[in-house]
Design brief:
The structure holds 2 protein chains of 2 kinds. Chain A is mostly beta strands. Chain A is 0% helix and 50% strand. Chain A has strands at residues 4-7, 10-13, 19-25, 31-37, 43-49, 56-57, 65-68, 74-78, 87-94, 102-104, 108-112. The radius of gyration of chain A is 13 Å and the shape is globular. Chain B is mainly beta. Chain B contains no helices and 12 strands. In chain B, strand 10 (87-94) and strand 11 (100-102) form a beta hairpin. The chains are: A mainly beta, B mainly beta. Chain A binds chain B through residues 4, 31, 33, 40-45, 48, 50, 56, 58, 90, 92, 94, 97, 99-107, and chain B through 4, 9, 32, 34, 36, 42-46, 49, 51, 90, 94, 97-100, 102-105.
């Protein structure tokens, strides 16, 4: 039981390049989330997927797209990376629809030059 | 709108001393409240949670937190800290629609 896994762990991009961050969970959770973490700002929600086949915007969705590929996998895509997207990205999944206890992956550290 | 405030950006305590990290929230309904810990370079680990019932909740690693509705607070405490407790701590409120709203975090440094 690996929990929530994320790939890659580290990535460096040049401005304008694209990439996809991958997330998978093996806990049979219904809901999945993408957050970004910036110094002094805590974690901010980018997008979430309440269930397979649905996605919704969070607090800071601009510049990102997501795909809920199946129940296990939820990917985050940067179509044209900008330096402002330099951050640490966390994926999480939800144990209970009612209680909202979330389990987090180890994070992806992204630098955009 | 829901919000969480952690007034202390950085706290330093001596090993063996007691610890209290502050958290204030704003939420219209009965909140679900959480404390997470993040060690350097790691993801977030759940320390404890409050859903309902007893307002004093126990968590892992010897931590506890007390929910005070009248003060909109959910402060985290530990009677005696260990060097391994050095980390960043995040308070969060369950904000409906299955979302969590996080505070800015408090970085804890332990002096030997």
């Amino acid at each position: 039981n690996a929990g929530v896994t994320q790939t890659p762990k580290f990535q460096v991009l040049k401005t304008g390049q694209s990439m996809t961050l991958q997330c998978a969970q093996d806990m049979n959770h219904n809901s999945m989330y993408w957050y970004r973490q910036d110094p002094g700002m805590g974690l901010r929600l980018i997008y979430y997927s309440a269930s397979e086949g649905t996605t919704d915007k969070g607090e800071v969705p601009n510049g990102y797209n997501v795909s809920r590929l199946n129940k296990r996998e939820f990917s985050l895509r940067l179509e044209s990376a900008a330096p402002s997207q330099t951050s640490v990205y966390f994926c999480a999944s939800n144990l209970s629809l009612k209680i909202n206890e979330q389990f987090f992956g180890p994070g992806t550290r992204l630098t955009v030059l | 709108a829901q919000s969480v405030t952690q007034p202390d950006i950085h706290i330093t305590v001596s090993e063996g001393a007691s610890l209290e990290l502050r958290c204030n929230y704003s939420y219209g309904a009965t909140p679900y409240l959480f404390w997470y810990v993040q060690s350097p370079g790691q993801g977030l680990q759940l320390l404890l949670k409050y859903f309902s019932g007893d307002t004093l909740v126990q968590g892992i690693k010897g931590f506890e937190a007390e929910f005070k509705r009248s003060q909109s607070s959910f402060n985290l405490r530990k009677p005696s800290v260990h060097w391994s407790d050095a980390a960043e701590y995040f308070c969060a409120v369950g904000a409906g629609a299955q979302k969590l709203v996080f505070g800015q975090g408090t970085r804890l440094t332990i002096n030997p």
